[in-house]
Amino acid sequence: MDKVKLIRDDGLRTDGRxxxxxxxxxxxxxxLHRADGSAYVEWGYNKVLAAVYGPRETHPRxxxxxxxxIVQCRYNMAPFSVSERRRPGPDRRSIExxxxxxxxxDRAVLTEKFPxxxxxxxxxxxEANAGTRCAGIIAAAxxxxxxxxxxxxxxxxxAAGKVAGKIVVDLDKEEDxxxxxxxxxxIMPRTGEILLLQMDGHxxxxxxxxxxxxxxxxxxxIGAIQREALLNRYSTKPDAVKEGVATLDRTASPDGGxxxxx
Length: 262
Ligand code: CDP
Hints:
Order of helices and strands: EEEEHEHEEHEEEHH
CATH superfamily: GHMP Kinase, N-terminal domain
Strand order of the largest sheet: 1-2-3-5-4
Bound molecules: cytidine-5'-diphosphate
Structural class: alpha+beta
């Protein structure tokens, strides 16, 4: 098999992107009626849905904290989301992603406002093409705001890394598989405070700084897209419909109520 050229002769990446260019990102807020908050994200070939419930009674009870609330997360990949059918149910990877996602939000949410209760995040990956933990965090953050959960700031996430010796942002599947390093981060865009940082591969200290700068800058752009998704959902609705942003009327719920009461 021919070796895949991750950086083409014209300096662009295999999908034609520049080093600092994100895959197309589309976010829709409030897509589920039964959840307190929800969001759907398409990012390149990733398709991810997030639902948020709470603050509500903590299950399991032993996880309850008397002086503050907690954030719990379940990240799940559909069996059909990847090229080779994934065995349903939790595996080491999804348990890890659930844990780091919950920890990231635990730092952003004002948990002191709901002692003993929990906020539960469910992330369902419908199609995966690398970057799903970041896509899940992006969707979950919009779903949290949609649910009215008090947070210190929006939470944005993006990876940067190294492919064929070049520092690039938002690696796709091919770059993730064949590249040299992948560093997903989640931050609060206003302050730049890091809520999640993981690293797969090897980088020099200088390269690591460049990767961090590139991912941070991308997160700030993503934070603006997240805010825009919420504005599209909750501000002047007729304009949003005209622009093709809100295509469905989600004010009427299938069971006759007014959706989730908002
Ligand atoms: O998705 P993310 O980049 O956050 O996590 P990863 O563990 O680095 O996985 C990278 C990609 O590998 C996923 O997005 C999927 O496209 C793919 N993958 C897969 O094909 N089968 C799995 N069981 C897990 C991941």
